[in-house]
From TrEMBL:
Signal peptide: none annotated. InterPro entries: Amino_oxidase (IPR002937), FAD/NAD-bd_sf (IPR036188). GO terms for molecular function: oxidoreductase activity. The lineage of its organism: Archaea, Methanobacteriati, Methanobacteriota, Stenosarchaea group, Halobacteria. This is Amine oxidase domain-containing protein. Residues 108-343 form the Amine oxidase domain. Transmembrane segments: none annotated.
Length: 347
């Protein structure tokens, strides 16, 4: 039997577990996830009759393997495609047509978390939620891995260990790991060098429909406090007819500066910005709001793959969008598929 431990239940981890469980006949996969949810920043919440993706906004069709996985391999029931285009706006708030109007922008009627849920449901993996890993330990001479969680429980031993948290959290796990190998310090340096952008998100509900020709607005010059505004009502099944639900993501500088400020004040400030950008003063007064801060939202680039590749010799695999080098959901899934195949075939 091959015992596989995975830290984090993001989209990449779900894809890797799916491949390993379906390819290695005797694989026993255990996943430890610190939160109560699945799919990492591809997160979905529900409130009354609302469903909304408040982290990643949608899944792009930029990778053929991911497209086949979502549309053919997995059940595509409830898969929805946003057909309205993404427009742009500048620092002065001027809105213009013009970005990726023809590409797929997928979610599900029940939200993006369906990706991880459907992948894990096709496996026999054991998923422990609300389980925060605090210590990674290399066990010699068995050449296995053990994990200690915040409640004092030990998990393992694992023949193979996959680490899926964002790079800063993965670097901290490696920094404190009980692993006497020069490669550990090299990995810490490489993973710790990956920079991240923070995103502070407001969710704004209104009892009226917006008459605009776009699904979303993106700030292309990155000089505005708001980086992104999208309309969840463009996703079938997410918002009641005749209503508007906006997901508003602040830019990195604003998010860093305001991250620990009063959430109500942050939401109000972002609503004011939205009213000005969209040109509708009613948007400054939402009927209901939600919010979320993402400290490690988007990697600025990829990791030095040399140390990451070397770690495979010790049965240690790192995965996620930051390993892929692109802060996109499809990139995380594709990287997970790749890592899963490497584990399965020992490459």
């Amino acid at each position: 039997m091959t015992d596989v431990g995975i830290v984090g239940a993001g989209a990449g981890a779900a894809a890797a577990a799916f491949v390993v469980d379906g390819t290695v006949p005797d694989a026993d996969v255990t996943v430890l996830e610190k939160s109560g949810g699945l799919c990492g920043r591809a997160a979905t919440r529900r409130h009354d009759d609302l469903t909304y993706d408040y982290g990643a906004n949608y899944l792009k069709s930029d990778d053929d393997r991911v497209v086949e996985l979502i549309t053919e391999t997995l059940d595509d029931e409830g898969l929805v495609d946003v057909t309205d285009p993404v427009y742009t706006f500048e620092a002065d708030g001027a809105v213009s047509p013009g970005r990726d109007a023809d590409e797929h922008k997928w979610s599900y009627r029940r939200g993006l978390t369906q990706i991880a849920k459907r992948l894990f449901s096709r496996t026999d993996a054991t998923v422990h939620r609300r389980t925060r890993v605090e210590t990674v330990r290399r066990v010699e001479p068995e050449n296995t891995w053990e994990l200690d969680d915040a409640d004092g429980a030990t998990h393992g031993p694992f023949d193979v260990l996959l680490l899926n948290p964002p790079a800063p959290q993965t670097a901290e796990l490696l920094r404190t790991a009980e692993w006497d190998d020069p490669l550990r310090e090299t990995l810490v340096e490489a993973v710790g060098a990956v920079e991240y952008r923070s995103v502070w998100t407001a969710v704004l509900r209104y009892p009226f429909a917006l008459d605009v020709p776009y699904y979303a607005l993106v700030n292309t010059d990155k000089e505005h406090a708001v980086g992104w505004i999208s309309r969840e009502e463009c996703k079938a099944g997410h918002v009641p007819d005749g209503e508007t639900l906006l997901v508003v993501q602040a830019n990195d500088a604003w998010s860093d500066a305001k991250y620990d400020d009063d959430p109500a004040e942050n939401v109000a400030a972002l609503a004011d910005h939205v009213a000005e950008i969209v040109g509708d003063e009613r948007l400054a007064d939402p009927a209901w709001t939600d919010h979320q801060g993402w400290r490690y939202a988007l990697p600025e680039g990829g990791v030095d793959r040399g140390p990451v590749d070397s770690a495979r010799d010790a049965g240690l695999y790192l995965l996620g969008d930051w390993v892929a080098g692109e802060g996109r959901l499809h990139a995380a899934i594709a990287n997970g598929l790749d890592v899963g195949e490497r584990v399965a075939y020992g490459i």
